[in-house]
Amino acid sequence: MPLFCNKWGMPRDDAPSAGAAAEVSLDFFLPAPDLRPAISTYYVLRLNGDAPVEDLVHPEWANIRLLLAGDWSLTFEGGRTSADVAPSALVSGTLSKSAKVRGGPGFLVGVGLMPAGWARLTEQSAAAYADTLRPLSDLVGDAAGELIARLGAAAHETDYFGILDEWFRAQLAPPAAVEALLNEAHRHLLDPELASVGEWARRLGRSTRQLERMTLDYFGVPPKRLLRRQRFLRTFAAMRDQPPGAWGRLLDDRYADQSQFVREFNHFIGMSPRAYFSRRWPFMLAAGAARQALLGVPLQGLHKAE
How confident is the model over 151-170, as pLDDT tens digits? Predict the structure, then answer.
């Protein structure tokens, strides 16, 4: 039985369309121990009520989303939307920026896929899936439909996680030599002292060109962009529960000043810090609280490599 994080829910009284207030709830589970180097968490998202919910998905690693009820869409930078992606089993690649999510009422089961997990699930380049949403069948063929069918036939939600464990054991290739390198690269990426692409490559004993090929193939985006994203996520996570007057002392040391951070916030979130924190974001607030309680970090992009 996977470890369970208690449900965190929040009523939504400022839903974007008419109808009764929607309620967002989220449960997080850990996969079986042997799968944790590949998978950060399983989760169940439920939206109850008559009104849809709009929210943001923050920059993150790849996620598999299994839509069991309701209508859902993701909208990426520039207005690209997933609305034309019909299958119920979907994979979103690494997000270098936030995407808008809209859905409900209904529920979905999700899987957070680590870079090492991407390497074991597919030989396709993660860069081809970055900042987009595609059918899971593009990665695993007919096994995507089989997974949806098994989840749909489950007698109880607690059965989902055994089904997922069994499915991933069948789909993931055995750990290979590249996994150790990816985990080492991932650990260095999370180090606040890592200052440049050149230093990252030197720590791994690779050239900067080799590092770029590796990050595109398995992390989804180039190394310079990854370092920039991690610096933002560290600061964003630190300031989430702090009053605005405290934000200045929480900035990463490599931001020249608050103005630079505000520009970065607009780049990654699509609005200013003031605009973001003046709104309620029930999905991401619930996700951050639940993930923090279970794993000690509020964002999947900060999840440690095993």
Answer: 999 989 889 999 999 999 99
Residue 227: strand, helix, or coil: helix
Domains of the chain: 4-173 (2.60.120.10), 177-277 (1.10.10.60)
Residue 83 DSSP SS3: coil
The residue length of the chain stands at 306
101 forms beta bridges with 55, 74
CA distances from 286 to 46, 57, 276 (A): 11, 12, 16
pLDDT tens-digit map of 100-114: 988 778 889 999 999
**HSE (side-chain half, CA atoms, 13 Å) at 95:** 28
Residue 27, pLDDT above cutoff 70: yes
Q: What is the pTM of this model?
A: 0.88
Check: CB of residue 103 under 8 Å from CB of residue 70: yes
Q: Residue 267 and residue 236: Cα distance in Å, rounded?
A: 13
Q: Which long-range contacts (CB under 8 A, 24 or more apart) does 198-207 make?
A: 200/227
The pair of structure tokens assigned to 248 is: 């200045």
